[in-house]
């Protein structure tokens, strides 16, 4: 009986984690450049405990459910034309490098603008980094444009090139906020990355799919809860009947 409760509890814990992942995806359905997380669950067979210690032959292993991580979905989000020359969308697998108070971070948010200090920033206020550091513009630097290789220019000439990077293992990226990532391994320059000016990449979350999955997870959680309740009732009845025979 205890095995039933433990197995069910492991499933509930995994489902709660998956619900958190789905909820975060739904909350960022309108976040520029957001990349959804998925839930990866697997079977874990207890190497010592068994379902039937009195069964002849090899014991049957007890199977638990464990959370095996939350892989990053690196597929492209919907590309939306904006007509703004400072809005840019990246090809798949690459990231903009930005400067934050916590240090260098990486993002796919390409909604860019020039702030009051003359810096090129994205809609989250993070300073865009170029190959030579942050960009700095003056009032005379008009007619800004961004080429397909990330080169930023104005009517006065080239201002620099956006620092666009890639990672050998994107799954090692760690979320730092809605659409920022950090990495313990240094990135490489994304030489083959391409920039589309006048376009924005929206979130790659499909709201209908996430909501449907949320409903399914909620039903599964309730089903497990009902199983735990029935198992508890069975144990209570067994104890009561046992006491009546004594």
What keywords describe this structure?
2 helices; three-stranded antiparallel beta sheet; 30% strand; 246 residues; 2 domains; alpha+beta; 26% helix; six-stranded antiparallel beta sheet; elongated
How helix-rich are the residues, as a percent range? Answer: 25-40%
Indicate the low-confidence ranges by residue numbers. Answer: none
What is the count of DSSP helices, taking H or I runs of 4+ residues?
A: 2
Would you tell me the overall average pLDDT?
88
Walk me through what this model shows:
This protein folds into 2 domains: 2-70 and 216-245, no CATH class; 79-201, no CATH class. The radius of gyration is 26 Å and the shape is elongated. A hairpin with a 2-residue loop joins strand 9 and strand 10 (133-134). It has 2 helices and 19 strands. The longest helix has 39 residues, at 207-245. With 246 residues, the protein is of the alpha+beta class.
Short description:
This protein is an alpha+beta fold and 246 residues long. It has two helices and 19 strands.
List the helices and strands and how they pair.
Elements: H1 2-27, E1 41-50, E2 61-67, E3 79-81, E4 88-90, E5 94-100, E6 103-107, E7 112-114, E8 120-122, E9 127-130, E10 133-134, E11 145-146, E12 151-154, E13 157-161, E14 164-166, E15 174-175, E16 181-182, E17 188-189, E18 195-197, E19 199-201, H2 207-245
Helix pairs in contact: 1-2
